[in-house]
Amino acid sequence: MDTAKTTFPDPKMGEPFLLTPGPLTTALSVKEAMLRDWGSWDGDFRAMTKSLCDQLLALAGDVQGDYACVPMQGSGSFAVESMIGTLVPREAKALVLANGAYGLRAAETLRVMGRAVSVIDKGDYLPPCGDEVARALDADPAITHVVAIHCETSSGILNPIPEIAEAVRSRGRKLLIDSMSAFGAIDLDVTRIPCDAIVSSANKCIEGVPGFGFVIARMDALEAAKGNAHSLSLDAHAQWAAMVKTGQWRFTPPTHVVAAFLEALRLHAAEGGVAGRGARYARNRDVMVAGMRGLGFETLLRDRWLSPIIVTFFTPAHPNFAFPRFYDLMKAKGFIIYPGKLTVVDSFRIGCIGRMDETIMRRVVAAAKESLAEMGVDDATPPAAALAERNRLAD
Ligand SMILES: *Cc1c(COP(=O)(O)O)cnc(C)c1O
Question: What integer pLDDT is reported at residue 3 of this predicted model?
Fold first, then answer.
C-alpha cells in the first residue's frame, strides 16, 4: 500500500480537474501508458486482455471459474445494452428499479430491444428498497429479471443493493446490476450479493480512460444466453466465446485504452484496492460537502443516501446566481463541474472520483467561494420551495 507516497495532483501542465463522473482526471502514468501501439492479434496484447479480466474477477470477489469477465468496446451504455440484451431472453420480462436517468435509460434500452419491461420509478430522492421489490415480484410472476442501478449517478444516490439482491434471490428471479459508477470504490462481492451479472466501465472508479466497458457474468448464465442477443456487435456471449477460443476481442479492441486500464488497475491495487479507493472518495465527499454547506449550498439528498461518487447540489435561490456563469468561473480556476440531470429541480453536480484527494477538494470549495463573490452572490441557500419539496418527499 503506497498511498502515503501517492502525490496529488500529478504534474499535468495545468489542465483542469474534471469533477465529473467519467471521463475523469487520470494519473499521468495512465496517460503515458497510451504512448505505444499494440497489435490486437499479438500475444502480448492477448496477455493484457487476460490480465485485465483476471484482475476484474478478483475485484468482484475472486470468482474465477464461476463468473466470466467480458470486456465490450464502447461507452458504458454499450456495455449495459450488451449485458441486458444478452442475458435477458427475448421472451423474458424485466423489472427496472429506477431513481434517475440511468435507471430510465436501462428501461428504454429494454424497450428498444423489444423486451417486456415494467418499472418502479422512485423519482430523484429515494432508493428502491427490498420490501417493495419483493411485493412487485410477488404481484407479477411474469417478471424473470430485475435490473438495478448501484450508484444512480444522476443524483449520486447509493442504492441499497444488498437488500434488493436478497429480495430478488428470495423470489427466485435473476438480478443484473449497473455498477458503472460504483465498481472499484464500493464493495460489490458477487459471492455475497447474489446476481447474474454486473456491468461497469473503464473510465469510472478504476480511473482509466473511456473506450470499453465490461460485463462480469455467471458462467452458467452466459452459457445459457447463446442466441439471445438482439445485436451482432453487442453480443456478450459471442464476445466471450471468441475470447475463450482465441484470447482476442471479436472486433478491433481499444488497445491504448486497455494499456491505460492496466496501469489504472496497478494504481488501484497500490492504493489498497476497493477499500482504499472508496476511503479516499468518501473523504473527498466529506470535505467537499462540508465546505459547500459552509457557503450555504445544500445537497439534494439526505446524508444517509449520499454516495462517495458524486454529489448533487440545489441551484442557489440568489437572483445573481446563474449556472453557466458559475461553470465558467470555476473552469477559469481549474475545475470542470457538471450540470444537473434531474427532472424537477434545478441542480448541479460535483464529482468526488478521479485522481484527486481532499487537498484538491478544499481548493474546489475555495474556488466556489471566490466564484460566488465574483457573481455578487452572498448566500448560496437553495429556494425554500425546493427544500420543502425535498423534505416532503424524502422523509
Ligand atoms: C456512466 C454511467 C453509465 C454509462 O454512461 P456512458 O455515458 O454510456 O458511459 C451507465 N450507468 C451509470 C449508473 C453510469 O454512471
Answer: 46
Q: How far apart are the C-alpha atoms of 105 and 157, rounded to whole Å? A: 16
- Residue 295 has phi, psi (to 5 degrees) of -90, 0
Pick the last residue of a domain from 269, 291, 308.
Answer: 269
- For residue 349, the cross-strand partners are 312, 338
| 367-to-17, 117, 280 alpha-carbon distances in Å | 12, 45, 21
Ligand 1 neighbours (beta carbon < 6 A): 21-22, 75-77, 80, 102, 149, 153, 178, 180-181, 201
* Same-domain pairing of 8 and 108: no
Residue 152: its pLDDT value, please?
96
Atom 3 of ligand 1: nearest residue by CA position: 76
Q: What is the dihedral of CA 22, 390, 315, 330, to 10 degrees?
A: -40
Kindly state whether residues 133 and 189 are assigned to the same domain: yes
CA-closest candidate to residue 108, choices 132, 77, 135 = 77
Query: Whose alpha carbon is nearest atom 5 of ligand 1?
Result: 76
**End residue of a domain, out of 269, 303, 325:** 269
- The whole-chain average pLDDT of the chain stands at 95
Tell me which residue range forms the domain holding 352. 3-25+273-394
pLDDT at 1: 40
Question: Does residue 76 have a pLDDT over 70?
Answer: yes
> What is the H or E stretch that residue 286 is in?
helix 273-294
Average pLDDT rounded to a whole number, residues 56-66: 93
260 and 118 fall within a common domain: yes
For residue 20, the CA-to-ligand 1 centroid distance in Å is 12
